[in-house]
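*** Query protein ***
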Amino acid sequence: MTVRGIPVVLVFALAAAVAAPGETSRIAPPLAAETPGGARPVTLDLDASDVGRKILHAKLVIPARPGAMTLYYPKWIPGEHGPTGPVTDLAGLKFSAGGKNVAWKRDEAEMYTFGCVVPSGATALEVALDFLMPPASTEGFSSAASSTSELATLNWNQVLLYPAGTPVRDIPYRASLKLPAGWKFGTALPVESSSGGRTLFKAVSLETLIDSPVIAGAHFREVPIGPKLDAPHFVEMAAEGEAALEIPAATHSSYDHLVTEAWTLFGAHHYRSYRFLLALSDGIAHFGLEHHESSDDRIPERGLLDPEERPTHATLLPHEFVHSWNGKYRRPADIITTDYQQPMRTSLLWVYEGLTEYLGQILAERSGLWTSEQYRDSLAMIVQWAGDHVGRNWRPLEDTATSAQLLFPARRDWEAWRRSTDFYEESALIWLDADTLIREKSGGAKSLEDFVQAFCGGKSGPPMVVPYTFDDVVQGMNRVLPYDWAGFFRDRVESISASTPTAGVERGGWRLTYADTPSPLQRAYERRNKEIDLSASLGMVVAENGTIKDVIPGRAAYRAGVGPNMKILAVNGRRWTGDSPDDMLRAAVAATKNSIKPLELILENGEYLRTCSVDYHSGAKYPRLERIPGTEDLLSVILKSAS
């Protein structure tokens, strides 16, 4: 094809054969300074000294031959499950060779593709570019807010181009980094040298470079965690101030246990060292993103210090840690591509993310980051949430995985009808179902952990990838317990069903019930999200300012005509104002149990006001779990430490 007359090199589809189950494939250890065959590395100099103004400056020298050349800006970012590369924040792009400017043109059909003609006699193309980092209000993944004047998380995919036509695992890059004076950093990248405020990293493949973000800041601390094993583990923290870097002793102990519990669970590891890159700030987006030898973890500034807020982030590090085994080492074959431009097919995210969600929650409890009660309270909220998602009447769970790239940025309103990224929590219920089924049918001799260790454990060593398919998952489960696992998963993942997948909870000896007050964990989530969750009663979620975030189809608020984005002005004739309007709303809901009158809401809907009579008389309801009399408490058995 051509870009306004400039030929563009075509990148062919995945050529490497997919490995058979149990066979290693695809990614070798990070490349040394020279790759086999003596390939010259691309040099990438990143100047982050202006990060306080949210500007990154990068210069690349890319080996080239005279003639037409195509360069890509990374589009499909691993772990983000969509074409999220922030190309719109690329600025100041200039090409040159031998001191002379080289014209470039963007492909009119593919916005991430740039074409040029390298002049005769040139052996390299020089590229200069700036990256304009998003402001604090920007949400998302690595394209979201990731820096303040005091700290930054730097993602290499944002500040580079790469040549088309060669698999990214075979393109060596030698990166260097300049930070603001006095800043320190953490990364899984091996350091070659450091002098004059500039750090030079050893040459690695482009695949490894993009898989190795950097956390840096004026207030920085490296904390070793876990027992002394053959691979060290660290929490690398950057915060807005020194006080936020203090890890409470109990939390530090839990991090130590997290390493031990994970190694016991999987029986092997696939990294030379592991680093949790933990950013503590209220000025950045909060999320987690997996990498093979590290994870990009972001929580509020007092996320470690506030005892009420700390449990709401308890599963973040365990979840991303599990991804080193499930998602990085073992990876759906359809997600593996030779470059960052080819679409990733994400239908197996119910394994990639769902199994990780299940295991991450268990490890949070086993390590002590959660108590058993907090685990159960979280599970109760998930069961309640899954029951609300009536979208399963028209949309199978697998479709939420297939369309993940659309659902991550989707609005929250009407989420229960639209469905969201349900392949996380709902899939966790399915894996609990599978776990309890194995334990029941084997008389306790086997469990899902046998599958996890065989499927995700393997042999310890440096990073590598072993692809898998749906059939591989089924075969692995059958090796643990012969059963119709293909039918089991297809019924729950591929079919449309109105029923909530609660079999694992009930087989585990527990069932959903309701209390008249929220659990401490639910209140903590509500405070974090600045909302009042009345899903189980009226069927709506309300922001602290009275704006209705979402409404559950079929519930009382929905039947009364209440909709998302309306704003509550008054409850039962009393104005939504004062220090605690949420308490007023909760009290009004609780009072419905002893009243035959409907609950009245005065709502603002755009320029109009209306009164809604909510016909609800069941009082306050918040999800909890209760024991089923006469049953074995398998849930407690599952939570028992394996180390």
Remarks:
- The chain is about 25% helix and 25% strand.
- Confidence is low (pLDDT under 50) at residues 1-37.
- The radius of gyration is 26 Å.
- Residues 249-266 form the longest helix (18 residues).
